[in-house]
Amino acid sequence: MIVRERVILLVEDNPDDQVLTQRALARNNILNPVVLAKDGVEALDYLFGTGAYAGRDPSALPAVVLLDLKLPKVDGLEVLQRIRSDERTRPTPVVILTSSKEEQDLVNGYKLGCNSYVHKPVDFTQFSEAVRTLGLYWLILNEPPPMGR
User: Fold this and answer.
1) Checking CA distances to 48, which of 78, 81, 83, 106 falls within 20 to 30 Å?
2) Sheet order of strands, 94-98 included
3) How does pLDDT run across 108-129, given as a tens digit for each residue?
4) Alpha-carbon 9 to chain mean position
């Protein structure tokens, strides 16, 4: 049996939020590898093993995708729609982690199949706690489906 690392795919274009998220993970001893995608195209390339990630095994899916909504090239809702429309990536947990407080984004996120929708707190301590809670739940407590099912 092949044991794979439980990778976090962080899809975030804001450099400050990238650093804050990675710092919050490290501060809370969540040491899983983090793959950073700076836009929607890069996220999809990683997930499907295309573009800059051609040759990457697309069956090695992340344990969780932390997805911002306001992304360049392909926005977060379209990334989510593509994840859910493909049988290979459909079971992958997707947590929308965004500063958007637009009710329509919340509604559309759940309509498209996100597993959770979290507003990024402005305060670092609150942000760190939110990231810690997400990490503990999705990486430790959540039981993923068996590979290949």
Assistant:
1) 106
2) 34-37, 8-11, 64-67, 94-98, 116-119
3) 999 999 999 999 888 888 988 9
4) 5
Q: How many CB atoms lie within 10 A of CB 54?
A: 9
Burial class (CB in 10 A: 0-12, 13-18, 19+), 2: exposed
* H-state helical runs in the chain: 15-27, 40-48, 76-85, 103-111, 124-135
Flag residues of the chain having pLDDT under 70.
1-4, 147-149
What pLDDT does residue 147 have?
A: 61
Q: What is the distance between the alpha carbons of residues 37 and 67, in angstroms, rounded to a whole number?
A: 9
pLDDT for the residue numbered 84:
97
